[in-house]
């Protein structure tokens, strides 16, 4: 594709690096930005700078945060003895939208996927084991996607945490096998959280 401007081409190429965005969609987004007034455009670019420079992860749960400890972990109203293990931020947001869960989270930052070269060491697994090892957590809820990788990760976690004597449950399979939490409707996800079952039995 020939572009009339190198600046436009640069922006299109950057948009096209985003997941699910092809060159045509990237061009449409870039052209939309051109039509916006300069103030809106500067605000947009400033928000991206803030994302690059100021975003951080919670020291406890690894969720995206503006401070060392995120709002969920620092809230006095959350059940600190109930820990929900999820793959990433999107799953935290999906579960929070159900308004059915009142414990805290642990974000793994992915799942075990040997085919992609992702092992336990690439995830926030050590911090999970140390966190549970302190003895304050009474229940672990494994809220991972119902995929082969999700099940592999859940099995690995259950084996690692079993010696610690903590209750391990998993969300009930109201979520379709092969489905992902972020695409589940809030009612289905809410029911899956509230009707969770013991993991492995």
First-to-last CA distance: 56 Å
Shape: elongated
Would you tell me which CATH topology of the largest domain applies? Answer: Dna Topoisomerase Vi A Subunit, Chain: A, domain 2
Domain count: the total is 2
How many individual β-strands?
7
The averaged pLDDT comes out at 90
Helix content: 40-55%
Largest sheet: 5 strands, mixed
| Count of runs of 4 or more consecutive helical residues | 8
Structural class: alpha/beta
Strands side by side in the biggest sheet: 4-3-5-6-7
Briefly, what CATH class of the largest domain? Alpha Beta
Q: What CATH architecture label of the largest domain applies?
A: 3-Layer(aba) Sandwich
Radius of gyration: 20 Å
Low-confidence stretches: none
Order of helices and strands: HHHEEHEHEHEHEHE
* Share of residues in strands: 5-15%
Topology (elements, then pairings):
Layout: H1 6-15, H2 23-35, H3 38-54, E1 56-57, E2 64-65, H4 71-74, E3 79-86, H5 89-98, E4 103-107, H6 125-133, E5 139-142, H7 148-161, E6 167-170, H8 186-194, E7 197-198
Helix pairs in contact: 1-2, 5-8
